[in-house]
Design goal:
The complex is a heterodimer. Chain A is an all-alpha fold. Helix content of chain A is 83%, strand content 0%. Classes of the chains: A mainly alpha, B mainly alpha.
Chain lengths: 103, 150
């Protein structure tokens, strides 16, 4: 029974590290798109996806460090990512982020 | 050349997500004593919710929805923080001494209430005031600058 618990602990750690490596590769590819991207919407979508990958990294680090204190951080990254993406999209489409009169 | 666009998806998501954001900011504000959070990040999250509503509905509509001037939040928050510091003089304690006590409430049971939450409330209001003042001052700058000086 003891060895089984140790085995599962090791397995969770190895799987988490493997996921971190895969997400890091994904981040590098996304960085290529964010730098090289031919148009600005390409860069905006790449930054949005980088943020989602950051949420994944924060979750995996919470598993690796065995803590629940990072859950707020994950939610916070998601919220700030949404607001930032909306702001970038409004700027790319209309030129202003907060308009004077919409109706 | 202002093209009339349809913001239906953005407005619908905003009216849902702004509620979640305000609830999360209140959670962060009250959780700051024992968990990550506190007045600063709670105020920033509230300001983020208000900025999201501003982005979806525009300045004139939001002036009707939230008709207060965010500039007054700064002295109000600073005053609350100062009063919680001075309040310790009433009990013969040094400046900014804080205390806590346990109370019995009908629904939540035994709860620890600390006077540090009042100081945190001052921080919260000040952060909202400063953030919204910065953002709205920049956003109101584009045209007809003299018409809505208060």
């Amino acid at each position: 029974m003891e060895s089984l618990a140790v085995f599962f602990d090791d397995m969770i750690r190895y799987v988490t590290i493997a996921c971190l490596i895969v997400i890091s590769i994904s981040l590098i590819i996304l960085m290529y798109r964010a730098i090289k991207g031919p148009t600005n919407p390409d860069r905006a979508v790449a930054l949005d996806t980088i943020g989602i990958n950051l949420m994944a990294i924060a979750g995996l680090m919470a598993i690796l460090l065995i803590t629940t204190q990072l859950n707020d951080v994950i939610l916070l990254i998601g919220i700030l990512l949404f607001i930032g993406t909306v702001a970038i999209a409004k700027f790319l489409e209309k030129g202003v982020i907060i308009e004077r009169d919409l109706d | 050349m202002r093209i009339r666009t349809n913001d239906l998806i953005l407005r619908t998501t905003t009216s849902i997500i702004a509620f979640i954001l305000l609830g999360f900011s209140l959670y962060l504000f009250f959780a700051g004593h024992n968990k990550p959070g506190g007045g600063f990040i709670g105020g920033l999250m509230t300001a983020a919710a208000i900025v999201l509503m501003y982005m979806a509905y525009g300045l004139e509509t939001m002036k009707k929805i939230l008709p207060w001037n965010f500039r007054y939040f700064i002295p109000a928050g600073l005053l609350i923080a100062l009063v919680t510091g001075i309040g310790s003089f009433l009990f013969g304690q040094p400046f900014l001494s804080h205390t806590f006590a346990y109370f019995q409430f009908p629904l939540v049971g035994k709860t620890e209430l600390a006077t540090a939450i009042l100081f945190d409330l001052g921080v919260y209001l000040t952060v909202i005031g400063i953030t919204m003042t910065i953002i709205l001052t920049i956003a109101e700058d584009d045209e007809e600058p003299a018409s809505n000086v208060e």
